[in-house]
Amino acid sequence: MRELLRCFKIRREERGLALAVLLVLTLLNVLTVYKYGNVFMHPTDDYWKLFIGRFRVSGYDPITYYVLSTWEARYNVYRHPLLAFFMYPPYLINQGVIQLTGLNGAQVITAMILVAASLYSFLFLHRIFREVMHIGKGDALLLTTLYFSFAYIMVATMVPDHFILSMMMLLLTLYIAGRHLCDGSRMGRAQTVWLFILTAGISLNNGIKVFLANLFVNGKRFFHPANLLLTVALPAILIWMFCRWEYHTFVLENEQARHAQKIKQRKEKKQREIALQKVRAQEDSLRRAKGDTLPAATAKTTVKTRRPAYTGKPLGKGEFMRWTDITTSRWDTAVENLFGESLQLHEDHLLGDVFRRRPIIVRYSHVWNYLAEIVTVFLFLWGIWRGRRDRFLWLVLSMMAVDMALHMGLGFGINEIYIMSPHYLFAMPVAMGYLLLKSRGKTVFFVRMTMLLLTVYLWAHNGWLLTQYMLR
């Protein structure tokens, strides 16, 4: 654990860079606080209705605002088993803020958490380029800046969701694993277990990536019975048992109460509708008895219903299978969302939610958007080819493959795959790093200039659209 904590020490040579990054990240989070501060900072009796009902940035859920305002295990405990407990100390701080100022500081405290996690994500990725891949200082800064220009990396740094925390832990895991690969040392059991607890505690499916890191570092020793039992099986079983305990202890009773309340509200609404229909029927009978005719506007009544967002046909109806999708076009998803919206925002339906009005597939309006996408993907694939013999690259790609199997294969969350970008998109600049390492002469100059132009364009494009959205 001490070794993990030492990774969070900002070194002397990193302080200037950290200060500049801190300033940019703070400005981004100020935009979020500005957009919702007038509404969210006032205490209320129903924080869930306030935050969930009013927050509108893509498909992100502001559950963290709620947990910091009224502590409850409101995250999905099977996906985020420890996240609510990680947020308990900030919740206590916020209670102090409310008592002292009369204002709900959930937004500001969340912004501070996001800025810290984003800053360390930047530093961990920069260290990966410098210490693991041994890339020059200028190129390392270019690649890290390029990564944070990607649309849904930029957005993740300023929205109250778990993704930036997950990204920080994944990059920390890669940094630690990369150092072990460089010096040929083993990845210890305690180290792996701590990384698993913290990473899987935030997002359970990412826990498998810690085991992948252990596999790539330790090689055949990963399959030693003691390692499989104590490092893999036991922590996985314990955290799953904790999920079950957490659900029955903190969630089930409240969930049943909310379900009963919804049933009661539906019954009351149905009774009101029946009573209204009876009154209208009596009024109609009286009009007919008097020989009156009904006005054309009231002769037919149209009930408007909200059309649910299309999510595709699932593989089954079970607890988890119902979230799969086997019908949504994988090609359109790859072009417009996986390597589209994830990298550069669409102007149409800007930061819209697919569960409200945004279509799953949105097309770009300009040719240059597709040109930028083609260039980025080409650099990514070219980098994979140039670094194909490097063990660390295959570790990074294997982590990305886990997400691709879930999202593009089974279709979990495929309708908004770009939101999950912080879980896997770091594979792109890492692969591009090998392209810079392996290229020489005019080729490396061309690649470097292309990446620089791409970085400037993405920061301008995404930054402008994001600022417009937050200020309107």
Structure report:
The protein is an all-alpha fold and 472 residues long. The chain contains 19 helices and no strands. The chain has helices at 2-6, 15-40, 47-54, 63-69, 83-86, 88-101, 106-132, 137-149, 151-156, 163-183, 189-202, 207-218, 225-289, 296-299, 330-341, 367-386, 391-410, 427-438, 441-471. Helix 2 (15-40) packs antiparallel against helix 7, helix 10 (163-183) packs antiparallel against helix 17 and helix 16 crosses helix 19. The two termini are 45 Å apart. 39% of the residues are buried. Residues 296-308 have low confidence and may be disordered.
Radius of gyration: 25 Å
Instruction: Please summarize the sheet with the most strands.
Output: none
Span from first to last CA?
45 Å
Categorize the overall geometry.
Answer: globular
Number of helices: 19
Total DSSP E strands:
0
Residue windows where pLDDT falls under 50 for at least 5 positions = 296-308
The structural class is mainly alpha
